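Let's see one such:

===
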Amino acid sequence: MTKTIIDQAGTSVEKRPAIRTRESVLSAYRTELAIAGTIVLLVLAVGTQVPQALSWGNFANITQAGAPLIIMSLGVLLVVITGGIDLSVGSVFSLTGMVTAQAMAAGFGGVSAGLIGLGVGLVFGSINGFLVTVAGLAPFVVTLITFAVAGSLAFIVTNGRSMPIGDPDFWLLNSGSMTPGMPNYILFCIVLLVVIEISLNARVFPPRN
């Protein structure tokens, strides 16, 4: 619905409301709503056969396991909407985690080890960005190579073994709760989602040529 107003020159103009109507929201997010509805139906169907699937403990385990995937997918979203692709995100995520755990095993604190792991991710991201934007290589090829390199290094760093997290404060960064009643892994996903939503509505990111 539009509203007709008269400007200072006496010209009649139409002004659209700034707030989206319910119909426009449903239309804009119809794909996401369809996927969410399908997931709910599948969960209910499984719950009728396995009641434990609808327990709070199961939902908490699934949410905690899926939080890193949500965070990574939101980052990749910014790459995909500009016409790019990043195949290395999973391997780089694994490598940064392994390097962080290895650093803590070597005596570094949680903060220092976390910064070391983030530095590894920054190095791989910079390599991908340089080869794609400066060297002009195809992002599919570049990230496929770094996918293999990061995955191999993650195996080499730990000799193929899982690494325990010895710092309890670092562990609480994920499983703790800064907001009463909401685990940190859910809070991080919501905050990141809101930031990206505001950013995408505030500016336009040009696609790759």
